[in-house]
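pls ignore typos typing on phone
pyridoxal-5'-phosphate + seq
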Amino acid sequence: MNIPITRPYLDEREQELVADVIASGWVTQGPRVEEFEETFAAYVGAPHAVAVTSCTTALHLSLLALGIGPGDEVIIPSMTFIATANAILHAGATPVFVEVHPRTVNIDPQSVEDAITPRTKAIMPVHQIGMPAGMAALLDIGARHGLKIIEDAACAVGSEVDLGDGWEKVGRPRGDLACFSFHPRKLITTGEGGMLTCADEATATRLRRLRHHGMSVSDRTRHSSGRVVAEEYVEVAHNYRMTDLQAAMGLGQMEKLAGIVEARRRLAARYTEHLAEVEALTPPFEPAYARSNYQSYCVRLASDAPCSRDELMQKMLDRGISTRRGIMTIHREPAYADMCAHVELPITERASDETLLIPLYPQMTDDEQDAVIRALKDCAGRE
Ligand SMILES: *Cc1c(COP(=O)(O)O)cnc(C)c1O
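k done
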């Protein structure tokens, strides 16, 4: 048996939609990108959605659009994918790493509050592997200190939060901007791709210009105009455009999204139920205000377990079952070593070192899942 960590959920529908784009003759940012943006905005409940090449570029543009740059500090957890911090450095600003809550592994509001300085301009909470961060506390801190909130929602399409008004999708604007990823490791994919959502129209307009070389008109407007249009380049910007090929794939994926979220939640609940018997393993913690999309299912191995985390991963691999280490820590990576020489985050380090991600994808059969559960019981169970 061979069980991968994940598998994209693509079929003839995406093939057909991409083939239509090729036949149309318009392959880069055009009508399909617009349609994908509208569909995505409607799904999360946002007034505006802006498509880009990745979540990394979405995060970069979000900082530029909010005027955050050299001399400014942005507070993030160290426990996240490295792109969160890279985007801050690309904007010329400084990432400030803080602790996570030991159970949710989401950014710890008290740690955020303690890290605020006169240079702090924004908080960038990460909805870890789909589990929504404690937005109520973070929005309150942001309001009290006049800080922008940029959500790294790379993994959180389909996740929900209840901030007192009932369940709503992550991406419905609460902070200033939310950024999503369509890398194949996330719930839906366009190969590579990203999306920003926001409430403010002027910000959306600026984002559209920043992704398109700072050009004053879109290719589509120019193409469909009956008159010669002279474009202007009003600021130095980037090429972060999504292609219509990718957007067509994204539209096919949006049709499947509700089913993908439902399947992942069902499988996650089944893991939690069966793994309750394995004393050395702690399942993910879902706070009352959060509904995860279970982009990944993360288990924590007790420090007195019969084997180490890495031994458990090897034993699983020997049985043909892929696992991955838990969420990385940025401050321990060589690229950040100099910058982070004095950073101490013991809760983060422990949480990262004691966790592993186990296979989960919507097509997973109960037989496949039972094999993973059996292997975990055999390898991590006590005699
Ligand atoms: C995947 C991921 C990113 C980067 O997304 P890309 O679309 O690959 O650029 C950023 N932040 C987090 C938390 C992620 O998981």
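Residues 251 and 296 are 23 Å apart (CA to CA). The chain has two domains: 12-254, 258-380. more later
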